[in-house]
Write a structure and sequence with these properties.
Elements lengths: L4 E7 L2 H8 L23 H5 L2 H9 L4 H17 L8 E4 L3 E5 L22 E6 L9 E4 L5 E3 L5 E6 L6 E3 L8 E10 L24 E2 L1 H5 L2
Antiparallel strand pairs: 1-7, 2-9, 2-10, 3-9, 4-7, 4-9, 5-6, 5-8
Length: 222
């Protein structure tokens, strides 16, 4: 398995996330105050995973400034994930996944590997925080020794990791601040042709080219 890396990519998309969600500048880590207030209640898994913020994100994604700046950033990001490949040799997840990790909640379900949900090699995950990520508001990723460590990262950083084979999870967020991030998968195009496309657990789309994954040229023309 590839080693998990946190690198500074120099791409901070937080202002465009704030614009898309309708949040004042630099207030993403206070997102809970714009929805549930304080003290923050404990949500059910369904409430936690499908908040109004998710609906705003996915409904407004296409044609947004966030989408445009993300697409423009992909050649730089892809070069950090697959240094030997050009951007047109890489398959890209069509729409990233938004994560909103509210205080006193976990944002995702059980500890898992993405292989448990239809994903397969050679996919690599790119995890991009829009707020400071640390301790219990971050994502925990399994090391080679089987232990789990929280990722420490800031806007402008990305974590690159093998989510297909490494278990990962969240803890109950005890920091008092919301963590907002998005993640997406990249894979060499050559590795996408010879595998059976399974169905995504969330979007119900086929995890293959032309549906869940697209080429960079297709993103530019979307």
């Amino acid at each position: 398995m590839m080693q998990t890396r946190v690198v500074h990519c120099g791409v901070n998309l937080a202002p465009y996330v704030e614009e898309l969600l309708g949040i004042p500048r630099s207030k993403l880590n206070w997102l809970h105050n714009y929805s549930y207030g304080w003290p923050m209640p404990v949500l059910t898994r369904e409430q936690d995973s499908y908040q109004d913020w998710h609906q705003k994100f996915y409904v407004g994604w296409m044609g947004s400034a966030l989408q445009g700046h993300w697409v423009n950033s992909l050649p730089n990001i892809a070069s950090l994930v697959f240094p030997g490949l050009a951007i047109d040799e890489i398959a890209i997840q069509k729409i990233p996944c938004l994560r909103v990790h509210l205080p006193n909640n976990v944002a995702v379900g059980i500890k898992h590997k993405d292989a448990d949900f239809g994903h397969a090699e050679p996919e690599i995950n790119v995890w991009m925080p829009f707020t400071d990520a640390y301790g219990t508001n971050s994502v925990y990723i399994q090391n080679d020794d089987g232990k789990f460590n929280a990722i420490y990262a800031h806007p402008g950083d990305i974590a690159i990791f093998d989510a297909v084979n490494r278990e990962h999870c969240n803890a109950i967020n005890k920091t008092g601040f919301t963590r907002v991030s998005m993640d997406f998968r990249l894979a060499p195009l050559d590795g996408m042709y010879d595998r059976e496309a399974k169905e995504s657990i969330n979007t119900r789309s086929k995890i293959g080219l032309g549906d869940y994954f697209v080429t960079y040229a297709e993103l530019l023309n979307a």
